[in-house]
Task: structure prediction
Amino acid sequence: MTGEISRAISSTAYQTYEKRLLKEVMSSPVPHHVAVIMDGNRRYAHDVGILISEGHEKGKDKLEEMLEWCMDIGIKVLTVFAFSTENVSREEGEIETLMRMFVQNFKMLGDDDRVHKNRIRVRVIGSRDLLPANLKESIVYAEEKTKDYDNYFFNIAVGYGGREEIVDAIKSMARDVKDGKIAVDSIDSELFSSYLYTAELPDPDLILRTSGEERISNFLLWQLAYSELYFSDVYWPGFRKIDFLRAVRSYQMRVRRFGK
Result:
């Protein structure tokens, strides 16, 4: 009985704090574009004594919550780092589990009533040449089903590497110079950005990373030039709404000078 009372008090205190944080956050402008490095699924699984595959599944569930949180406070663009070019070297069984999850989840996104009700455009950024055929098909399915939406934008980086993105952009630009489509003297940062995977997206206002690691890990290297960085010591599956609101509040308290 004592334990139940303690849990009830703790839950009430959490809800009260969350409401206060939400009120504070909603009183100031929120970031337009938030990008997230979702780190810690495997360590979370180890700590709570579950399979790594279950850790990834809980990470997927947390992403659904994150999307809801963003819409709740008016964040229009969410970009998440789901699978990097470096992740390809992980243990084969884990890769197979992740690919299977991705296939299922992209198909689910394409059919999700919440996606269509909120007019969320789903896009994948990264090198699709690294992905199996069935995953590429499910990505196209989700993208095609949502291609005309423009209320919210949900971007998922799969087979993504920041350096690789820049190299690909340079190659494409070099081909266009060679073919006479653009002049060398016309190249500037704005034109270069149009060759990136994120060409149609604004640069992130806030980059958030979970798990306590304080590095960018080859994510949106060009785009984050003036982004605010926030690092949370919570593993991704354990990330709570108050952790999210703290990150947004931290962003709101900073003075963004953009190098000026």
Summary: The mean pLDDT is 93. The domain at 32-161+204-252 is CATH 3.40.1180.10 (Undecaprenyl pyrophosphate synthetase). The CA atoms of residues 211 and 234 lie 5 Å apart.
